[in-house]
Amino acid sequence: MNTTSSSAGGSCAGRVAVVTGAGRGLGAEYARRLARAGAAVVVNDLGVGLDGSADGTAPAEEVAAEIRAAGGRAVASGHDVSSWTEAGRLVGLAVDAFGRLDILVNNAGVLRDRTIARMTEAEWDSVIRVHLKGTFATTHHAANHWREQTGDGRRLINTTSVSGLFGNLGQANYSAAKAGIAAMTITASLELGRYGATANCVSPGAATRMTAGLGGDPDAPSRSPGFPAAVVEWLASDRSGGVTGRVFLTSGKRVSVAEGWEHGTPATPSEDLGELDATLRGLLATARPNASMRG
């Protein structure tokens, strides 16, 4: 178990953070890192399996207790972020416990992997609900809190994935949700600046429950959650001031900034199908291929 000593003079000293999906894996590492940086943390986790079913554990309380034992400030939350009402109560808990909310890290998620032909409606809906709706619901309530208060230095940090940015077999639901989060973050960056908030995304790579079936050495330095957590701390701190609407891909010690969709070379053909065909074939011949997970 990682120890988590807080720092009164850290990069997030005096700030209040909510981290969703923080009972295990990357979310727990984010919560510990922000606590070490001086933030008071609301550790949110339902205590469910990867498929969203209850597993009888209380990981949020375990992480919060660990932070408190090391001298930090933390409370546990079992709110369901995919519920509009519960997401509002989560933001309210931060305000009630610590007086306000400065940092929202949306990390909660579930997996229901299956090919498009075999995926059920319930499998589609559950992943979209937790990832995409859950991210929007907490963001909505945080935005309303920030709108009603004066101040700046607020931080929205969402979680996308290489599956959402580049696509992945068997993950149509997860890819769609994560692509939607990346796009929604750009819109949030355009809207939340008036409330003193930036909005950015991380696309983290690390060995967690979600990646356990993908093989590889979970103890390899390149799969440690520590470096993605460092990027989250940077985004949560004043050091990232003025940075908004960006996606940071981070895994191991490697970090890059995603560059998103770009307009290709334009053309102005007529509506004649033959001319249009020739024009589009010509544009395809010179267009760069879609990026992949490998760059």
Task: Please tell me about this protein's structure.
- The chain is of the alpha/beta class and 295 residues long.
- The chain has 8 helices and 8 strands.
- The chain has helices at 25-36, 59-69, 84-98, 121-148, 162-166, 172-192, 226-236, 273-286, and strands spanning 16-20, 40-44, 74-77, 103-105, 154-159, 197-205, 247-251, 254-257.
- The chain has an 8-stranded mixed sheet, with helices on both faces.
- α1 crosses α7 (226-236) and α3 runs parallel beside α4.
- The longest helix is centred in the middle third of the chain and has 28 residues, at 121-148.
- The radius of gyration is 20 Å and the shape is globular.
- The two termini are 34 Å apart.
- Residues 211-220 have low confidence and may be disordered.
Principal-axis shape equals globular
Q: Strand order, biggest sheet?
A: 3-2-1-4-5-6-7-8
Order of helices and strands: EHEHEHEHEHHEHEEH
> How much strand?
5-15%
Straight-line distance between termini: 34 Å
Q: What does the radius of gyration come to?
A: 20 Å
With helices defined by DSSP (H or I, 4 residues minimum), what is the helix count? 8
What's a concise summary of this model?
The chain has helices at 25-36, 59-69, 84-98, 121-148, 162-166, 172-192, 226-236, 273-286; strands at 16-20, 40-44, 74-77, 103-105, 154-159, 197-205, 247-251, 254-257. Helix content is 40%, strand content 14%.
